[in-house]
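User: I'm new to structure prediction. If I give you an amino acid sequence, what do you actually give back? Let's try with this one:
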Amino acid sequence: MGPQVIDEVLKHASRITALLAEMREISVAVSGGIDSVTLAMLATQTPNITVQMYHAVSPAVPSQATARVKQLARDYGWKLKILDAHEFADEDYLSNPVNRCFYCKTNLYKAISTVTEDVILSGANVDDLSDYRPGLDAAKNAQVRHPFVETHTDKRMVRDIAKSIGLGELSELAASPCLSSRVETGIRIDPELLPLINESERLIKQSVSPEPKTVRCRLRATGIVIELDGGSLSSLTTQKESALKGIINGVFEKRGYCYPVSFEAYKLGSAFIHIQPVHTHPL
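Assistant: Good question. You get back a string of structure tokens that encode the predicted 3D arrangement of the chain. For your 283 residues, that looks like this:
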């Protein structure tokens, strides 16, 4: 970043910390993605406020996200509480409707609000408002605030701020939604299956060189579909594709699951079907 860009980023970060300072006592829901991690870092650097981080664990949360949050808490002295949001006890969530995220976030914010009266914050940014995000409706119901939205901060600015406050390579951390997002709408969420999806994605990243920019292991009515970024998909030879199918079959079959495996180009949100028209969320 050039000096002018750095100055703009620092000014923007200052607007966010000024907003946080007005809240005095805050709780940050930290998923382990770059948005919530950056918000947590800014909160930690804001003087004269009390900050508590909350991270929910469940079969839908990639283990590497939890490890990342715990490591950051150790490195930067966060006050961190790990909790179970109990979404897997919610039949509305398990049935996997198109607005499954609403039930996930409803359970998350309920779990946090039962242990604190602080203002709850999420890392949602303005780019999220133009996407189908039923979790934002749950946030509205729970009176959760979104500092990045309130300061008109988009994803690129979040990454620039992350870099400016010392998060280094994490500033370019790829998006990785919860593992339930890999399951096609209407297929019941199976907590035993989600870690296998995560393991499959991890093994594919290790087995393809150069490492793919994007990997999604989708469970659809037709079977397992591995989505890769265009460059990685086009470079797969028939022999390599066959080898990857063997690896993936091995992951699922050892737990008693058997699915046909195919490969497609990555498409954002392709596991969601019958989605309502995109609209801007009033926050």
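You can read the tokens as a compact description of the fold. Here is one thing that stands out. The chain has two domains: 3-172, 179-265.
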